[in-house]
């Protein structure tokens, strides 16, 4: 499994990288066919009404690729760790639905 972490207008610190790796490891521990994962972290630096606290200017996006399917999620929050947490929750829901669908197909085939 290949995990790529990119930062846009943001430097990726070792703490953020460790946090992402830990959370994504927990998400995909039940899926052995994950080909690759890409995480893009960015920060909106516009000086306007959105740049005050509570403006959700830390953005996290991720793509998880499995054979024949891709999962995408996007989350924003006041700080990067919160946006990563929201992102992983969204991806976990998508992957759980996919896993249940796969189990239902296996049961129907038997």
From TrEMBL:
Alphabetical list of Pfam families matching this protein: Ribosomal_S30AE
Gene3D superfamilies linked to this entry: Ribosome hibernation promotion factor-like
GO terms, biological process: negative regulation of translational elongation
GO terms for cellular component: cytosolic small ribosomal subunit
Keyword entries, A-Z: Translation regulation
Keyword check for Cytoplasm: no
Chain ranges passing through the membrane: none
Molecular functions per Gene Ontology: ribosomal small subunit binding
InterPro entries in the cross-refs: HPF/YfiA_ribosome-assoc (IPR050574), RHF-like (IPR036567), RHF/RaiA (IPR003489)
Coiled-coil intervals, chain numbering: none
Superkingdom of the organism of origin: Bacteria
Entry's family note: Belongs to the HPF/YfiA ribosome-associated protein family. Short HPF subfamily.
Self-association and partners: Associates exclusively with 100S ribosomes, which are dimers of 70S ribosomes.
Protein name according to UniProt: Ribosome hibernation promoting factor
Gene: raiA
């Amino acid at each position: 499994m290949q995990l790529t972490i990119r930062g846009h207008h943001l430097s990726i610190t070792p703490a953020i990288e460790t946090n992402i790796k830990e959370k994504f490891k927990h998400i995909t521990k039940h899926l052995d066919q994950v080909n690759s994962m890409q995480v893009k972290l960015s920060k909106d630096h516009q000086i306007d009404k959105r740049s005050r606290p509570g403006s959700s200017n830390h953005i996290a996006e991720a793509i998880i690729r499995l054979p024949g399917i891709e999962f995408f999620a996007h989350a924003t929050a006041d700080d990067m760790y919160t946006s990563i947490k929201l992102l992983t929750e969204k991806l976990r829901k998508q992957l759980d639905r996919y896993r249940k669908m796969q189990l239902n197909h296996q049961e129907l085939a038997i």
